[in-house]
Amino acid sequence: MIGKLVFFYNLSQTIIMSQRERILDIAETSMRARGYNAVSFREIAGEIGIKSASLHYHFPKKADLGLELVKRYSENFRTALNSATENAANPIEKIEAFIDLHRNALIEQELLCLCVVLGAEARSLPEDVNSSVANFFQSNINWLTDAYQDAGFENAPSRAKAGVATLAGALIASDSLKDNSVFEAAADSVLKS
Amino acid sequence: MIGKLVFFYNLSQTIIMSQRERILDIAETSMRARGYNAVSFREIAGEIGIKSASLHYHFPKKADLGLELVKRYSENFRTALNSATENAANPIEKIEAFIDLHRNALIEQELLCLCVVLGAEARSLPEDVNSSVANFFQSNINWLTDAYQDAGFENAPSRAKAGVATLAGALIASDSLKDNSVFEAAADSVLKS
DNA sequence: GTCTATAATTTGATAGAC
DNA sequence: GTCTATCAAATTATAGAC
């Protein structure tokens, strides 16, 4: 097999997904559910239907996979954020879109944010993976600072720091309690002026 | 050796710490730094100076250790909270004490909250460990709801959910960014009316 | 790109002596 | 309570054939 056929409902188009992307998809799902250290090469390979030795062809070390996962996740997050906000009528709608990305992870995907999970395991991870996770949080704080500023909120930088923290913790607490009202309460607080 | 001598500065008293407590202390520190799956019996035993086989005498399975850790952590947290709030002049001081417990973990201990870390790894953990982690979050939400109510804040239950989430996420983001201002911004938002 | 085979290490766990 | 000895399984990783 050279490529998995993926049909997108909104594109009358067929895309050949590379094996590399398929590996990243499965690894991301697994790690967002159970963490970096609970996921093995064998398990990822098994879900695709190849051997773990083949996985090492694509990602020589686990650290290589981890780093690429965080980079791709950050890029995809940014792309989704841009796409969801390009037609926003006002800055509040942008902040709502930011919240929606988190809500979608928790409720539709039933997964946490990759960087929240890796952030919790930080000291057991390769250092460059940690740096990338930190970059993700900083980018989000910067983005949210701008949005709060545009919306005319006071103390935008401080609000943005609190907002990013709130959504991160909301994923964990809401998931643990299996109570989406925790996430919604957190989302409300991020929007409140 | 039958007991490690522990001197408390505020008690002119010497306490013999049981081996069981010593194991729990080291396991807690390790797991709060690196997560459940990155910590092994051999490593914990090594730090105490015994063999991993001896550790199995105290905690037959890793799940037994994990469960006991969460229970003890929850009890200690509650005891510290009661102790810190018994002389509080008003409900706001109580909420500040709640925040202080988190601040102390991050800044003094340089560790995350055990239940925040385990919550992020939830799906890779034994189910009873997860239940105990969920209990921790629910207890804190209940406690904070009462405090907000006493302080006369509106929507106390919703605020409490957001507050617990905010402090949980603040630990992760602040630690990842090595930027305590993230925690302080989050702490401010928890206190704001 | 994927496979088989294998190495080197780590891990959770047990049996039985002291 | 702790030890030695040991196990079975899992893990990351590499070499070399196809």
Topology, pairings included?
2 copies of one chain form a homodimer.
Chain A: E1 4-7, E2 14-17, H1 19-34, H2 41-48, H3 52-58, H4 62-85, H5 91-108, H6 114-120, H7 127-150, H8 156-177, H9 180-191
Antiparallel strand pairs in A: 1-2
Helix pairs in contact in A: 1-2, 1-6, 2-3, 4-5, 4-7, 5-7, 5-8, 5-9, 6-7, 7-8, 8-9
Chain A binds a DNA duplex (18 and 18 nucleotides) through residues 2, 19, 40-42, 50-54, 56-58, 60-62.
Kindly describe this structure.
The structure is a homodimer of 193-residue chains. Chain A has a single domain, classed as Tetracycline Repressor, domain 2, CATH 1.10.357.10. With 193 residues, chain A is mainly alpha-helical. The N terminus of chain A is likely disordered. Chain A has a two-stranded antiparallel ribbon. In chain A, helix 1 packs across helix 2, helix 5 packs antiparallel against helix 9 and helix 7 packs across helix 8. The radius of gyration of chain A is 18 Å and the shape is elongated. Chain A binds a DNA duplex (18 and 18 nucleotides) through helix 3.
